[in-house]
Design brief:
36% of the residues lie in helices and 24% in strands. The chain is α+β, with helices and mostly antiparallel strands.
Length: 529
């Protein structure tokens, strides 16, 4: 809340992003005496490479910044998705001050959108007539003007509402596309520490970096404060990133600047759709998003539980049976297993992970390979592991055979030390079940953390779907599939992953190849150099 925090929260990040900012500092004495007008000058570039200068005159001097950066090609698609022209300054009046959207940089290679908040805490308190009379000093002296909090969520809803809904008139395919994005939060308050920041964002697939700020740079003996600058990077749909920020930024300090009513539950569930129900810390998120509202928190958690299929294993089993029946005429499962085993032989793997092992079809084939000394099957479903144990007759398996096999419950969304050190990992018909945030988390868990020498990934080739007579046009092979890729899309993803994490990749068809549409299954074999 002192000058050091204000300088870091306004000037530093803006200067780093290419903006020139002139702003006066306002002490607490100014706040109590009544703020004097302050003028900010923001210089930013637009298409022609010239500088545009805008003056924003306010009666207060409290500023916070969120920046969103992409290197997607062309990067200026970010402006289209946000429905904000990079050549213009966009300003919005809010109940607590103003918000401004502008672009410090906008080129085909790199584009950054900035959301600047000017909060007037004095005016906010004074505007509530009949309230706070004889109230405490902290109504006026607090950190709300200096940290991104629930004020940011309100401003995002006003400035980026259409982008948060995932709608894009005329270019819906762009809105549905995951792209490299980096979000920078100049200053957030998180009294629970850096650990909470990571617990909230890393399970969603973000690379998280933080900078912890002292209470006051002039008095280092006071120690560190609860303030952090946070950078989040990953490959997501813009809609997902914005909704993650909308929900999780207020969770960091568990305070809301407005009355919390039943509509907040609806808002939380709407913005958390598709990711909150499966978040490992959803209970903490809900309770901190709805602080001191136990009844509302219980209602939200109950409804999140309902969103999860009441019997997801049974549903998955039924859908898998449908897929198996469709592929049975070409015996595709057997061909997949044969192709995977052949690759494992060629790389002379000894210790193998089968990730997303399901009911153990591949595990049975791996057990027949005498060269494999250790075989681990992991799945998120207890029921699938129980079925695998029964079908493999684990309880009656000879001791030596049983010592080679281990069934393990776990998720591909979270780093797991048990997965480290293996020669190879197989991921057979798994990735297409993951939405964009989970796929991003999976990439880091497997390719960055576990890092086996060889990774075998198979996924459907959607071009081949026209060959399945029982599959309606435009439908996926499995009702739980989040996507099915063409050969070009799979190869593009694979090459990006291999370059990012230091693997080489080669591609193999699985099943009989059709001259026009290719093979029914596509395989990528990733190898460490």
């Amino acid at each position: 809340m002192r000058e050091g925090v204000d300088r870091r929260g306004l000037k530093g990040p803006l200067l780093q992003s290419g903006c020139r900012v002139a702003a006066t500092h306002m002490s607490w004495a100014h706040v109590h005496a009544g703020s004097t007008p302050a003028t900010r000058t923001i210089s930013y570039a637009f298409d022609a490479g010239h500088a545009r200068q805008t003056q924003i005159a306010d009666s207060y001097n409290s500023t916070m910044l969120l920046t969103l950066t992409t290197t997607h090609n062309p990067a200026t698609d970010l402006g289209f998705l946000l429905h904000k022209n990079p050549a213009n300054l966009h300003s919005f009046d809010l109940s607590f001050g103003k918000a401004h959207v502008f672009y410090p940089e906008a080129t085909a290679e790199r584009c950054t959108a900035a959301l600047l908040l000017d909060v007037d805490p004095v005016g906010l308190v004074r505007g509530k007539r009949g309230q706070h009379e004889g109230g405490t000093l902290d109504q006026y002296v607090n950190d709300r003007p200096y940290v991104l909090s629930s004020f940011l969520s309100v401003a995002m809803g006003r400035a980026f509402g259409t982008a948060m809904s995932g709608r894009s008139k005329g270019r819906q395919e762009l809105a549905d596309q995951a792209m490299p994005l980096t979000a920078t939060l100049t200053v957030v308050a998180c009294r629970a520490g850096e650990g909470l920041i990571r617990e909230l964002f890393e399970p969603l697939g973000y690379s998280v970096s933080t900078e912890h700020h002292p209470l006051d740079e002039k008095f280092p003996e006071w120690g560190e404060g609860p303030y952090y600058s946070v950078t989040l990077a990953g490959t997501f749909r813009l809609q997902d990133l914005l909704n993650h920020l909308y929900v999780l930024v207020p969770v960091l300090d568990a305070e809301k600047h407005y009355w919390i009513g039943k509509d907040e539950v609806e808002k939380l569930l709407r913005k958390g759709e598709g990711w909150l129900a499966s978040h490992p810390h959803k209970e903490a998120i809900v309770k901190r998003y709805l602080p001191r509202q136990r009844q509302l928190a219980r209602e939200a958690l109950a409804r999140l539980a309902e969103e999860d299929n009441p019997d997801p294993d049974a549903t998955e089993e039924a859908h898998s049976e449908e897929e198996t029946k469709m592929e049975e005429p070409i015996r595709l499962w057997q061909q997949r297993m044969g192709a995977v085993v052949a690759v494992l032989r060629s790389v002379e793997a000894k210790r193998v992970l089968d990730l997303g092992c399901g009911e153990g079809k591949l595990l049975r084939a791996l057990l027949d390979e005498k060269s494999l000394t250790e075989i681990v099957g992991m799945d998120v479903s207890y029921r699938s592991l129980e079925i695998a144990s029964q079908r493999l007759r684990l309880d009656r398996m000879p001791t030596k055979q049983k010592e080679r096999l281990k069934l393990m419950h776990g998720s591909l969304m979270y780093r797991d030390k048990r997965l480290a050190g293996y020669d190879a990992a197989t991921v057979v018909e798994v990735i297409e079940h993951l939405d964009a945030p989970r796929l991003a988390a999976f990439e880091r868990v497997l390719f960055e953390a576990a890092r086996p020498k060889t990774i075998i990934v198979t996924t459907p080739n959607c071009e081949y779907n026209v060959k399945f007579e029982t599959l309606p046009a435009g439908k996926f092979r499995h009702k739980d599939h989040r996507f099915e890729w063409t050969r070009e899309q799979f190869q593009e993803w694979s090459r990006r992953i291999s370059e990012r994490f230091g693997y080489a990749v080669r591609f193999l068809p699985v099943g009989e190849e059709d001259p026009q549409v290719g093979a029914p299954t596509q395989m990528g074999v990733f190898s460490l150099g």
